[in-house]
Design goal:
alpha+beta, N-terminal domain of MutM-like DNA repair proteins, Helicase, Ruva Protein, domain 3, 2 domains, 4-stranded antiparallel β-sheet, about 25% helix, DNA-binding
DNA sequence: ATAAATGTTAAGAA
DNA sequence: GTTCTTAACATTTA
C-alpha cells in the first residue's frame, strides 16, 4: 500500500542487508510481476552478487548489486518487502526471494500490480534515468508546479496523481495535500490563484517531508490532526469542523474531502 | 454476493 | 498532437 513514504520504509528494510551476497534466487517466473523483465536472466546473474546500494524515487526502488546488476522494484497496489531468516520458505504471493548471507529478501504482492525489473549494465539502467524532479528537492519549485497546472481542465486530484509530474504521490497523500491546502479535489487545475499555488506547493513539500520522517524509518503515525486519521473510515470527520467528510469518486479514485474548508 | 482496496496504463473520446 | 476519462489488470477483505 505504498506511496513515497511507505516505499522509503520498505527500501530501508532491504537496505539492512547491504553488503550481503546473494546465494540463491527463488522466483515464480509465470507471475505478472515479471511481465517486463526476463526472470531467467535475473535468476542466473544475481547469485554471487553483493548488495551495494539502494535508492528510491517516488514509488520506484532501485537496488544496485556488484557485477553491475540492477534490480528495480515497484510495489503496485498491494506489494511489500520484508527480510526473513535465511531458512525462509517462500509463501503465498511471494514472487521473488533472494536468499543472502544476511537473510532472505522477500517481495510479496497479492494483486500483482507491482513490477520487478532487472538489468546488467555498467551505467544506471535506462528505466532509472531521466526521472522527474523529486518533490522534496529544490528542482521542484513554483515554476514547475505552475507549468504542470497551466491550461489543464482536469481536476486537481487527477493531476496530482500523475507520476510524471508528482512522483510518489498516491491516493492518501493527494487527499491530505488538497485538504491541508483548502482546495477541492475536483477543482480545475487552471483555475488556481497565485496565492493558492504557493500554498499548494508548500503543502506538497511539507507533507512529503513529514510523511517520510514519520513513516520512512519506522512506519510510525503521521501527525495528529491530519486528514489521514479520518479518511479511511466511512464515519470520518473533518479534523477542523468535525463535520462528516464527503466521499466522492474523483479521477476514478475514492476521495475524502471537506466541503466546508475546501474550495 | 457485491464492492472496494495507499496503482498504472492502454484505448478511445474530445 | 494533446488532453481527458474509463476500463482492465488479480486477489483479498468488508
Amino acid at each position: 500500500m505504498p506511496e513515497l513514504a511507505e516505499v522509503e520504509y520498505y527500501r530501508n528494510l532491504w537496505k539492512k542487508a547491504t553488503g550481503a551476497v546473494v546465494k540463491r534466487v527463488e522466483l515464480n517466473a509465470e507471475k505478472r510481476v515479471f511481465r517486463k523483465t526476463s526472470p531467467g536472466d535475473l535468476a542466473k546473474k544475481l547469485p554471487g552478487s553483493r548488495l551495494i546500494q539502494s535508492y528510491t524515487h517516488g514509488k520506484q526502488m532501485l537496488f544496485g548489486f556488484s557485477n553491475h546488476c540492477w534490480l528495480g522494484v515497484h510495489l503496485g497496489m498491494s506489494g511489500s518487502l520484508k527480510v526473513e531468516p535465511k531458512e525462509y520458505k517462500p509463501q503465498k504471493h511471494d514472487h521473488l526471494v533472494l536468499i543472502t548471507s544476511k537473510g532472505a529478501l522477500v517481495f510479496n504482492d497479492p494483486r500483482m500490480f507491482g513490477l520487478i525489473l532487472f538489468e546488467q549494465s555498467q551505467e544506471l539502467p535506462l528505466w532509472w534515468s531521466r526521472l522527474p524532479p523529486d518533490l522534496m528537492s529544490d528542482d521542484f519549485n513554483l515554476e514547475r508546479l505552475e507549468k504542470a497546472l497551466k491550461g489543464k481542465t482536469a481536476p486537481l486530484k487527477a493531476l496530482l496523481l500523475t507520476q510524471k509530474s508528482f512522483p510518489g504521490l498516491g491516493n492518501w497523500m493527494v487527499d491530505e495535500i488538497l485538504w491541508q491546502a483548502h482546495l477541492k479535489p475536483a477543482r480545475q487545475c487552471n483555475s488556481l490563484k497565485s496565492k493558492e499555488k504557493q500554498i499548494l506547493l508548500e503543502r506538497i513539500k511539507t507533507i512529503c517531508r513529514v510523511s517520510v520522517e514519520r513513516i520512512g524509518q519506522t512506519y510510525g503515525d503521521v501527525p495528529e490532526g491530519w486528514l489521514f486519521h479520518q479518511r479511511w473510515s466511512p464515519k470520518g470527520k473533518c479534523p477542523l469542523h468535525k463535520t462528516p467528510l464527503k466521499r466522492t469518486v474523483v479521477a476514478g479514485r475514492t476521495t475524502a474531502w471537506c466541503s466546508e474548508c475546501q474550495r
